[in-house]
Amino acid sequence: MVSIIINMNCPSCGGPLLVEDGDSLILCPYCSTASSIGAYEKDTSFMYNHRCSQDDAIERVKEWFEQGSLFQKKAADLKNSGNITGIDLIFLPFWRMVGQGRAIVCGYNKEVIHNKTIMDFKKADISRMYDWNEIACNAGDIGVRTITIPDGEVQPADEEEIPIFEASGSTRDGMERAASAIRDMAYADASAGISNITYAKSFVTPQSFSTILYPFWIVRYSYRNRGYFAVVDGYTGRICSGRAPGNVRRQVTAGTIGAAISGIIAGSAFYYFFDIIPESGGLVGNVAVIPFIMLLISGFILGGLSYQTFRFGSEITERVQKSSNTGR
Q: Fewest Cβ atoms closer than 10 Å to its Cβ: which of 167, 258, 285, 313?
């Protein structure tokens, strides 16, 4: 039989807390404040060693020099003219919580068929395990918010032996942020397919909370006397984010062509609106407005794309957000 301790109160609102033997992390059901006893009085930290070597990280960045999207093209000679100037290994802290999330959602979907409104009432009650994580510090330009937790190969962290970023919040802040996020994920799963919500309640029962120290390579390089950087995942070897010089020729070409096409479309739309449409009366005139609107929309789209390429083409910033695990 599991014994229950009932003589504990929430330090924030004073509400009674039911604590089972063996529990270390308790969330107040009234105000959602996280309280800890036993093992959770001190944050538990784990770390992953880097599997991607320094040479592999540099090689991956050189491959990245040649990659780019349609509207973000790097300098054509970046691979030949870019010089690696430095590389450092750092560990970023991530809060991680594994917990049981539950959500109850009631509502209805409304559909009109043959002038009749049909109400389809629905109720969803889901309960599943969630694995949540989020960066615990201000990483700035590194641009990583979540990680995919690798299986195995984790070990206790020795924070005095490795270069790490300090967490920007307390352990309790992380617990409350994690609990709120898991409740949100449970609610999102339960409310999927229900367009009109009339009642919703979500809960979370934490199973574990820890800080994960995850490795990243910061690779610095120069191009034509200007400094840039790239961030490489120290475990998987993937590029996470970086800054690179843009393709100047493509930038100028985009600006010129975009301005010319936008001008032609604007002139055509002006002529269409003041010459063709007034001469077309009745239904024909109303229908003639449609091509005019399409011309305007096309002009705005082409002009916007050209401006983006011209305005921001001199320097490219890439951020590849890694996805975290959700329910399992």
A: 285
pLDDT, tens only, 206-258: 888 888 999 999 999 999 888 999 999 999 999 988 888 876 565 555 556 66
CB 144 within 8 A of CB 105: no
Alpha carbon 42 to chain centroid, angstroms: 29
Domain ranges (residues) in the chain: 1-42, 44-246, 250-312
In terms of residues, how long is the chain? Answer: 328
- What average pLDDT score do residues 54-65 get? 93
The tokens 């809960």 sit on which residue?
203
Q: pTM of the prediction?
A: 0.68
Q: Among 37, 16, 15, which residue's Cα sits nearest to residue 26?
A: 37
Let me know how many helices (H) and strands (E) the chain has, helices first.
6, 12
- Burial track 314-326 (b if 16+ CB lie within 10 A, e otherwise): eebebeeeeebee
3-state secondary structure of 59: helix
Grade residue 186 by pLDDT with cuts at 50, 70 and 90: very high
Report residue 250 as tokens.
Answer: 């493509």
Cα 267 to Cα 274: distance, rounded to the nearest angstrom: 11
Q: What is the DSSP letter of 26?
A: E
Residue showing tokens 């020729």: 249
